[in-house]
Structures are given as structure tokens and as C-alpha cells.
Design brief:
6 strands; 190 residues; single chain; elongated
Length: 190
């Protein structure tokens, strides 16, 4: 009997324990892959407010939204982790100032302005995008007005010039060795 009382108390405590709330609020307006150019492969949002702020709860929201679209980068542990913030207004290009290529994850906060996707929602809204960039670019075009802040979380790796030089030199050496071998085989058979 003495054993059953603590076990029963533990079961009751677990049953009535507070369930942690989800980090993200509800989607106020669905995002679309065509919100940006080049078009996204996946998106999550629009979530109300500026979720790319530097607070701990905003970082948890960022991580949760990025996980929904297959983020495979490092955890979001600091404000603008690995990011290039963009503070601007309006539509048009968001220049991240760094070369981007391949799988890329970004977030964009749009204000509540009348030309934006979340017009009339206090604090605007934030959407998260995963896109594939086949070539190098620094710029993503916003297809809505009222763009406020954009952040880059992760992009593909662009080889350094020295890497390209070593690759080309390696191909040259391999070609030279093949040619030399072909010449020696031809002279032996002649």
C-alpha cells in the first residue's frame, strides 16, 4: 500500500501537468511559394507579428517554423544567427549581401501596410521559406509590398577560388597523364 500511494500521486501529477504551448501561433494568412522570386520550394506562415526579433521566444518560433519546412542547419541560438538582416520598406529586392546558392532558408517579415500580404493585422506577419537557387545570387525579389525585415539562415557552400584552381589543375594533370600514357602505348605498338 505504501508503494501504491506515491505511484498514484505521480500518475495524477503527470496527468494534470501543464502541457507546454506550441511555439508558433496560428497562421493568419497562408503563405505561397510565389511570394518571392525565385519561387520557394516550401513555406510556413504567415504568423502574426515580427517573429525574427532577437528574443528567446522569437528564436523558438523561428526554429519551429523552420523545422516545418525541413531546416537542416544549426539550432537558432542567437538573434540573426548566420543572418543578414534587411531593414527596408516596400517590395522589390531583398539584398542579403552574401552569395547564396543551392538549398537556402530565409524569413521575411511584412508590415501591416495595405500592399502587404498581411494588411490590417497588427504587427504584420512573418513567413519562412525554403528555396533552391541553381545559380549564385545575393538578391531575392519580394512579390508583395510592405516588406520590413529579411533574414538568411542557411545557404549552400560556394567554393573558394583556390578550390576551383585546384580542381582545374587536377583535371589538367589527369588529362596530361592520360595523354602521356596514350603516347607511350602508341609507340610500343608501332
Amino acid at each position: 500500500m505504501r508503494i501504491l500511494i506515491p505511484i498514484g500521486a505521480a500518475v495524477l501529477a503527470a496527468a494534470f501537468a501543464e502541457v507546454p504551448a506550441l511555439a508558433l501561433g496560428p497562421v493568419i494568412v497562408p503563405c505561397a511559394n510565389t511570394d518571392i522570386t525565385p519561387n520557394a520550394v516550401a513555406c510556413a506562415g504567415f504568423y502574426q507579428g515580427n517573429l525574427i526579433a532577437g528574443t528567446a521566444s522569437a528564436r523558438a518560433d523561428q526554429q519551429a517554423a523552420l523545422d516545418l519546412i525541413g531546416y537542416d542547419g544549426p539550432p537558432i541560438t542567437a538573434a540573426f544567427f548566420g543572418a543578414a538582416p534587411r531593414d527596408d520598406t516596400g517590395d522589390g529586392p531583398a539584398d542579403f549581401g552574401v552569395p547564396m546558392i543551392g538549398q537556402t532558408w530565409i524569413a521575411i517579415h511584412f508590415g501591416a501596410g495595405r500592399d502587404g500580404p498581411v494588411a490590417g493585422f497588427p504587427g504584420g506577419g512573418t513567413a519562412f521559406y525554403r528555396l533552391y537557387l541553381p545559380g549564385v545570387t545575393n538578391v531575392i525579389d519580394l512579390n508583395w509590398g510592405a516588406g520590413s525585415t529579411a533574414i538568411l539562415y542557411k545557404t549552400g557552400v560556394i567554393p573558394e577560388p583556390a578550390t576551383w584552381a585546384m580542381l582545374i589543375a587536377g583535371f589538367g594533370l589527369a588529362g596530361s597523364a592520360m595523354r602521356r600514357r596514350r603516347e607511350s602505348v602508341a609507340s610500343v605498338s608501332a
